[in-house]
Amino acid sequence: MSNLAEHEFEREVRRIMRRLAEPQSFVAAAGKEEYALHAASDNWKKPVMRIAARIWEAFVRRDLVSICLRPDGKSETGWQLSETGRAYWRRLAPQPDPFR
Question: Is the dihedral of CA 18, 12, 88, 60 positive or negative?
Fold first, then answer.
């Protein structure tokens, strides 16, 4: 497994967490080297995003996600943002300029 550079990790965090922060979104395994992000906006029918295993493993190592029951009713395990992940996302998310 290769290590991610910090700037690459932050880029991926912005890409993934933008959708994972939506209510009832979750990530599930989609094969040996890939994970899939599912969103409630399409009733979890098809993944809205694919995530490489090495990137998802970095999310897990940093405790940005926690295991959850999948809201789509399937018995497999999923992951959602943890409180640590939500706090990290709030720090990275673009904030409106209060002086505008």
Answer: positive
Residue 89 contacts residue 18 (beta carbons within 8 Å): no
Mean pLDDT of 30-58: 88
Within 10 angstroms of residue 50's Cβ, the number of other Cβ atoms is 11
Three-class SS state of 11: helix
Q: Give the pLDDT band (50/70/90) at residue 1.
A: very low
> Minimal CA–CA distance to 30: which of 73, 78, 70?
78
First CA to last CA distance, the chain: 45
Q: What is the pLDDT of residues 3-24, one digit of tens each?
A: 678 888 888 989 999 999 998 8
